[in-house]
Amino acid sequence: MVPKAIMIREFGNSRVLQIEEVNIGSPGEGELFISQSAIGVHYHDIYVRTGLYKTLNLPGVPGIEATGTVESIGPGVTDFKRGDRIVYVTSSYGAYTTHRLLDARLAVKLPEFVSDELIATNFSRALTVQMLTKQVLNLQSSHTILVTAASGGVGRLLCQYANSLGVRVIGSVSTFEKAELARSYGCDYSLIYGQQDFIRMVMDITDGKGVDVVYDSVGADTFFQSLEVLSLCGHLVNFGQSSGPVDPLRMTTLAKKSLTISRPILFHYTADTAIYKTMAYSVFNIFREGTLRLPPAEPRSLKDASTAHDILESRRGGGSLYLVP
Ligand SMILES: NC(=O)c1ccc[n+]([C@@H]2O[C@H](COP(=O)([O-])OP(=O)(O)OC[C@H]3O[C@@H](n4cnc5c(N)ncnc54)[C@H](OP(=O)(O)O)[C@@H]3O)[C@@H](O)[C@H]2O)c1
Q1: Other C-beta atoms within 10 Å of 316: how many?
Q2: Which residue intervals of the chain bear CATH 3.40.50.720?
Q3: CA-to-CA distance for 206 and 209, rounded, in angstroms?
Q4: Does domain 4-123+267-324 correspond to CATH entry 2.30.42.10?
Q5: CATH superfamily of 137-263
Q6: Residue 246 Cα to ligand 1 middle (Å)
Q7: Residue ranges matching CATH 3.90.180.10 in the chain
Q8: pLDDT tops 90 at residue 319
Q9: Residue 317 pLDDT greater than 90, yes or no
């Protein structure tokens, strides 16, 4: 089979995602040659495609995570063999492809109980949940949190995981249908962003205190409301901008309630290989224990990557959307 990849030659709408034949070459020092089985599709890929993030050199192959099988091994690689099933997440892109060379340090062997289809999109999401609840801050059962886009892909995993820790979880979403979905994925309460009295409702739930932590991935449309519903000394974790980048903030806004903010990016938390692998194994453990119900798999052909992007941009997030090479 001739290797093919989605190549971006100019930033733009989803039509710039075109499939092309590519030449892969043989694995160099420390590399694996892999044949891919499932490729995750993420909001990050949209930021890259549109040029909001200028992190992919053009022409270039987008995509940050996938599963596959090791076909051959470069010099110096000792911990993998031909036929190993692996998953990876990378900040160097190149995942929208049938085959690729991969730095062996990024590959993690997949346990048998994890399917390629479900892990391809949910690996980075589950790593993100680890980062948000263990590293950025240590979430405690005494906490009450607000999660925006609670029915989205990360939202569903984050709400369920927090719920399993005994945390009180308020989810916010854009529609009543999504509110119901959010409740079925671990929210104790679910509210609609534009709903009249949104702030009062959060205050009522928290006896007038406000929430300890807001996890906000919507950005522009929700950020300032997220600050409003925080308790004294509360913490806002802004980890995405699905509705657009957040406006600049005055420090005095934080001083009003001694608030703190963080803006974490998963790749920085996985940059150390040992920490990355530890996080990956704890994700596998969580999957084995069945703590998290993963959204149903939604396959699309690699050549139809543009359709997958259209689905995410239509705001119908939350599924385990992946590309089949
Ligand atoms: N910082 C990191 O390292 C990191 C890692 C992973 C993901 N993320 C970010 O987390 C966010 C969620 O990722 P995901 O995989 O869960 O995505 P997803 O499943 O597509 O969910 C995105 C959700 O955002 C909400 N949204 C609000 N405004 C939107 C708009 N204008 N267009 C589209 N959606 C909008 C939608 O829910 P409602 O309709 O309910 O608002 C949608 O369901 C993304 O912003 C992503 O970049 C960040």
Answers
A1: 13
A2: 137-263
A3: 5
A4: no
A5: NAD(P)-binding Rossmann-like Domain (3.40.50.720)
A6: 14
A7: 4-123+267-324
A8: no
A9: no
pLDDT at 195: 80
The alpha carbon of 43 and the centre of ligand 1 are apart by a number of angstroms equal to 6
Paired with 8 in beta bridges are 60
Residue 97 DSSP label: B
Rounded Cα distance between 46 and 34, Å, is 25
Chain centroid, CA 224 distance in Å? 22
- Nearest atom in ligand 1 to 318's CA: 19
Residue 92 CA to its chain's centroid (Å)? 16
How many residues does the structure list for the chain? Answer: 325
Whether the per-residue pLDDT at 236 is higher than 90: the answer is yes
pTM of the model: 0.96
User: Where does ligand 1 bind, in terms of residues with CB under 6 Å?
Assistant: 42-44, 124-125, 128, 149, 151-155, 173-174, 178, 217-218, 221, 239-243, 264-266, 312, 315, 317-318
Q: Whose CA is nearest to atom 8 of ligand 1?
A: 240
Res 229: pLDDT: 98
Q: d(Cα 40, Cα 98) in Å, to the nearest integer? A: 13
Distance between CA atoms of 154 and 157, rounded to whole angstroms? 5
Give, for ligand 1, the residue of 242, 276, 320 to mutate: max count of ligand atoms closer than 8 Å to Cβ. 242
Mean pLDDT of the chain: 96
Name the residue at shortest CA distance from atom 45 of ligand 1. Answer: 240
pLDDT at position 138, please?
97
Find the 111 Cα to ligand 1 centroid distance in Å.
28
pLDDT recorded at residue 159: 98
Residue 154 C-alpha from the chain's centroid: 6
